[in-house]
Amino acid sequence: MQFDKEKIKKYAITSGVIIVLSVFCLLAKLFFDFVGNPARADKIYTQALTDFNEQNYSNAYYQFSKVSYLSDLKPYAIYHRAECAKALNDYKSEQKQYYLLFNIYPKNELAVKSKYLYASDIADSNPRLAQKYFEEIILKAPESDYATGSKYKIANILNVKYSNSTLSSEHDRTEIENYLREYLTASPSGRWALKSVELWLSLNPTPADEDKNLIAQTYMLYNLPERALVLLEDSNLNITWAKYAKAALLNGEAGKAKSLIETGLRQKNSTVSEADKIAIITRYLQTIKEKDKAVDNFVTAAQGKNDLFLKNLQCKYTKNPKLQEACYANILKTYDISAFSEPVLQNLFMQSVNSGQYSNAKKLGLKYLENYANEQNAPQIVYWLGKIYRNNSRKVEANEYFRRVIMNYPDSYYAFRSYLMLNDIKNSIITTSIEPKNVIFPYYGKANATIIKLAEMGDLNLLAQIYEDDKFIQSWVLYEKGEKSRAMCMARDAMVQLTEKPDKSDLRWRLVYPAFLYEDMKQYAYMAGNNPVLMLSLTREESYFNPNAHSYVGAVGLMQLMPATAKEINRIRSLGLESLEQLKDAGTNMKLGNFYYHHLLTNLGENNILSVGAYNGGIGSISRWKGGLEYRDIDEFVEKIPYPETQNYIKKVFRTYWNYARLYL
Questions:
Q1: Could you tell me if residue 136 is inside a domain?
Q2: Cβ distance 476 to 490 under 8 Å?
Q3: Distance of CA 368 to CAs 18, 349, 362, 378, Å?
Q4: Which residues, in sequence order, are bridge partners of residue 469?
């Protein structure tokens, strides 16, 4: 039998190709399954994260290493390995992971932080390289906290370098001082602020007066006003009087503070900023009772200077209403409107509104909006311009202003009032129910897929580190950890900082106004005969849903009930209160709070605005103001309430009510 050599050759080649391809496919499959399979990488990361959260750092360190370099999670796995190594006191491995991260993934969100931590770790052993990295951080991420910290770190490196050198000079000291000055300017109460001050004064015990102001500010922020007083004692008051007076006030020396303010106002060449002057005078006046006399003394000290701020204070604290009205009228007559500061202009506008001087009010309001359209009081100004037109039967112009409030200041109390005006709603109630939605990651659908994945995996602490400057993510992390009151306050403050408010569908709003207690509140509100959405709003403003809240006057729990009030409403309605300790129970507190509110509502003609005010200021005060104040409608009544806390409380509760309605209807 003869064999066809050509056929055998072709068969061998074909078989070889098949074998090679099979091996290649097998290796590719193995590579995909064990190295590049995204699902496998996610699973490994999740298990490693579980070990990490359970403080099983050795196993987590190993598991994170198994996450593929082809996975989008790899840089975060590297960072977690550094954290594990640190927890295990393996500092060399920690440094290695930081180095890997910022070299392999220089554009990752954690790269700058990793470089900062690495440079900090090697600052003693390799100061030259550390300084190089710190300078790179300052150059590439100048607005970051790490750039600020790098300035302090470089100052320390230079201090060690120059203190060990015979070439130390005035130039060297100045270079260090410049870094310390930049650090304290950016972070006067920062982690290294006090150490920066100590280093600075060790190099130069008598810094310039401008620098003394900066150093004194840090002392005061660290609650060390006595050190600030010593530092400023021999300074030039033309430069330092405001900081000096503040230090005296913080140190309990109100008399000295008053004397320093008067001395400062007498200075002809003072370089103290208007903002610092206003701040210290305002702070001083908050500590005394006879404000009118103090302001008169300050005006005298100013020696005839045309100080509009002081003139406005004189009007504000004049006790005779008629003299006050004349005082404001004189300011309007004497000064050009463009010279008025924001608070002065707002104050004068409302004075004109309350006294019925609508022509003056319109002029002031338009000037205010020309200069301060983004300020806190702008919604009030726009709303009242609408009211002025409405009172003059110019409904079209009025409605334009009301719509402007809702469009430009959508979450404000005055947006709520504008909505009522546009829809001719008389009773201040726009809804009795809402459909709550869960709080979820605030950038869900907007962040990149990897960040969403980290959120879904519950890698909370890592996300908090990636977004250290994003208060909404910090708020969400707190919320997920169960610290809901803190979370709400943080989100609230973050939202205030936004000049342009996001659309109501934006998930950040749910952090500011979460409705997680609504179903429980609805049960007790209906039991008492109240509006559950309004009661949820009132509770948010009372305690930010903290069942353990306890005020300085003794109010307790979610709805901040005074023990005597709780006892009285329990006596009237037999609600089962056996011990004041029960007020810390959420259900008991909501039940008693709702029945107390309904008691107020019944006695105040079913008027919710009056009842909300009475919940804060007492039914006696509301009844007295209702009978004693001159007002045309409920808007004027609220604006004329003489107790600022109650006036602001009404606005806050109904602002929250409005936001729950617009977010969850």
A1: yes
A2: no
A3: 82, 9, 10, 8
A4: none
577 conformational bin, left if phi > 0, alpha if psi -120 to 50, beta if neither: beta
In the chain, the number of structural domains is 5
Same domain membership, residue 544 and residue 641: yes
Which positions ≥6 away from 567 have C-beta within 8 Å? Answer: 577, 580
CB 61 within 8 A of CB 84: yes
Q: Which amino acid is at 444?
A: Y
Reported as a pLDDT band with limits 50, 70 and 90, residue 73 is very high
Tokens 């709400």 correspond to: 488
Tell me the CATH number at 645: 1.10.530.10
Task: Quickly tell me which residue has 């519950």 as its tokens.
Answer: 458
Q: Which residues pair with 561 in a beta bridge?
A: 556
- Asked if 196 contacts 188 with a C-beta cutoff of 8 angstroms, the reply is no
Tell me the pLDDT of the chain averaged across its residues.
Answer: 92
Distance of alpha carbon 636 from alpha carbon 417, whole angstroms: 12
Burial class from Cβ neighbours inside 10 Å (0-12, 13-18, 19+) for residue 487 reads buried
Residues 115 and 137: beta-carbon distance below 8 Å: yes
Contact call for residues 314 and 295 (beta carbons, < 8 A): yes
Pair 251, 167 in one domain: no
In-domain check, residue 215: yes
Contact 243, 251 (CB under 8 A): no
User: Pseudo-torsion of CA 536, 542, 548, 554, nearest 10°?
Assistant: -140
Residue 214 and residue 248 in contact, taking contact as beta carbons nearer than 8 Å:
no
Side chain identity at 145, as an amino acid letter?
Answer: D
DSSP string for 91-138? HHHHHHHHHHHHHH-TTSTTHHHHHHHHHHHHTTT-HHHHHHHHHHHH
Task: Work out the angle between the directed axes of helices 608-617 and 586-603 (0-180°, nearest 10).
Answer: 120
Contact 472, 449 (CB under 8 A): no
Model pLDDT for residues 274-314, shown as the tens digit of each residue = 999 999 999 999 999 999 999 999 999 998 777 888 988 99
Least confident range of 160-174, 326-340, 442-456, 496-510: 160-174
Taking the model in full, what pTM does it have?
Answer: 0.87
Helix-then-strand count for the chain, H and E? 36, 0
The label of the residue with tokens 């006090």 reads 194
DSSP state for residue 337 in the 8-state scheme:
G
CA-angle at 353, arms to 349 and 357, nearest 5°: 100
Map tokens 């927890």 to a residue: 87
- Tell whether the torsion through CA atoms of 601, 603, 604 and 606 is positive or negative: positive
**End of a domain among 201, 226, 255?**
201
> Which residue type occupies 488?
M
The maximal CA–CA distance of the chain, rounded, in angstroms, is 131
Q: Which domain holds residue 583?
A: 518-664
